[in-house]
Each structure stands twice: as C-alpha cells, then as structure tokens.
Amino acid sequence: MMKDLEKVLVTEAEITEIINRVSARIEKDYKGKDLVMIGILKGGAPFMMDLIKKINLALIIDFIRVESYFGGTTQGELVFRKDIEVDITNKHVLIVDDIIDSSRTLKMVIDLFKKRNASSIEVCTLLDKPSGRVIDYTPKYIGTTIGNEFVVGYGLDYYEKYRNLPVIGVLKEEVYKK
C-alpha cells in the first residue's frame, strides 16, 4: 500500500507528537467538566482512540456516522448512518474527526448537537484543509494543516482502503484517476 503513495505527509512520529500536544490541551481545557468525545466514523476512529488514551479525565465516548455521498444522493446531502447513543444535554461535546475540508458535514453535526442542548460544542481534527472550505469554520483543536492534496492513511481512505496505514500520505494520482 505504501507504494501507492506519492509521498508521506505526516509520519508516525509526527502523529504521536500531534496526539501528545492536542491531548494535553484538551485535558487542560476540560478539567472539571462533563466531557463527551464524539468521533465521526469511520475516519476519525483511529485518531480518537489514540487521543483518549492520553487524556487523564473521566470522559464519555460515542460515535456518529454521517455520509455526504451515498448511493443516489447528490453531493452535499447528508445521510446519518449511526447516531450517538448518549444524552449530551448540559455536557461539553468535543467532536473528533480525521479531516475538516468543506465543513458541510461538520456544520450539520454541530447544528444537530446544538438542538440536543449540549453545554458547548468544539471540534478536534487531525488534519485541517482550509483550501477546501465551503462553510467558514475553524476547529478549536487542529493537529496540522495541509494543502489541497488527496490524502490517505491513519483513518483516511480511498474507497475504504488505506485506512490502516500508520502514516498519512498523498495518494498517487494514477491510483485514483483510473
């Protein structure tokens, strides 16, 4: 699978450094608060699982699965495949995702959680890709910022493949333009 990468953008060591830096900040910011971390499946799962191991707080975790393209739906339509199971009323919600690109999906999830009366809603992302923004939004916790490149690995996929790479890399154009 590594042969399909044009280059490695974020190494395993850099991912570990990001997790250590971001988890320390989250732990400081949420000390003494009712924290619910909600991962966006599937891509956000590896990052969230590694992140929570470094946060020394009593917290609740859950997942939501939202797809912005599925079957016959058009781009931009969201389909909720799995909703959260915990009550977030009066709790501090931290949404964890692998990459923030257009912010369309994120805005819909934030709007949904606002209706459910969360005390606060913030976002933690491994990768921020501001060049893809359609909706203006800046996450509170950002692992690293990337340019307009097609990335895979560590949760990020191309047709469900490459999620298990231990690095984040730029996929060769010939792989996805077949």
Counted up, domains total 1
Instruction: Enter the CATH topology name.
Output: Rossmann fold
Largest sheet, spatial ordering of strands: 4-3-2-5-6-7
Shape: globular
What are the segments in which pLDDT stays under 50 over at least 5 consecutive residues? 70-74
Highest-level CATH class: Alpha Beta
Topology pattern, helix = H, strand = E: EHEHEEEHEEEEH
Our measurement of the CA-to-CA distance between the termini, rounded to an integer number of angstroms, reads 16 Å
Structural class: alpha/beta
The total of beta strands comes to 9
Helix content range: 10-25%
Biggest beta-sheet profile: 6 strands, mixed
Whole-angstrom Rg: 16 Å
Strand fraction equals 25-35%
Question: What topology emerges from the helices and strands here?
Answer:
Layout: E1 5-10, H1 12-29, E2 35-41, H2 45-52, E3 59-67, E4 79-82, E5 92-100, H3 104-115, E6 120-128, E7 141-145, E8 151-152, E9 168-171, H4 173-176
Parallel strand pairs: 2-3, 2-5, 5-6, 6-7
Antiparallel strand pairs: 1-9, 3-4, 8-9
Helix pairs in contact: 1-2
Walk me through what this model shows:
Helices cover 24% and strands 31% of the residues. It has 178 residues and is an alpha/beta fold. The protein has a single domain, classed as Rossmann fold. The protein has a 6-stranded mixed beta sheet with strand order 4-3-2-5-6-7. It starts with a strand and ends with a helix.
